[in-house]
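Structure ticket #2291
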Amino acid sequence: MRLIIVLFFSLCIAYAKQTKTPLAVEYVNPINFSGLWYEIARTYNSFEKNCVAATVEYKLEKNNNYSVTNRCFEHEIDGKLIVYNGTVQALEKDNMAKIKSTYFWIFSKNYQIIYLDDYQTAVMGDKNMENVWIMNREPFLDEKKLKDILGMLENYMNIQEFIFTKQDKNGKYK
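Resolution: structure written out below.
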């Protein structure tokens, strides 16, 4: 009986620690989301291993799809420029809240916008919250707003996993 009780509580604790998935924002206008976004913070991913001054630029194409250009410098600002091009498709008609990103024609992953503040600040992540980006239209984000976003994300992930992106004070890609 004692073993059953211990097992029951262990399962309850394990279930409570499962990552919750945040809901996507209700609507993301394809035109308003277009343009340059500066990476404020990200979770680890191999394709940005040594990146600083990272940005992503969404260019609206036909059928509310985007061509995407990711840029960063390797190790230091003004280091070797790294550029990745890809595409993004809306998973819902005329709404970019849930998207499919494709790079090199074969690597695809679904993401959703889980936070959007007047098309100036956004948080994008996959459903498991393993790949998450905090993005802003300017190279830096107000400290209070960043703290509020991290507080919201704390409900879904370990925010200690974030890597804060070093940005150029003037923005390198304007």
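Closing remark: The radius of gyration is 18 Å.
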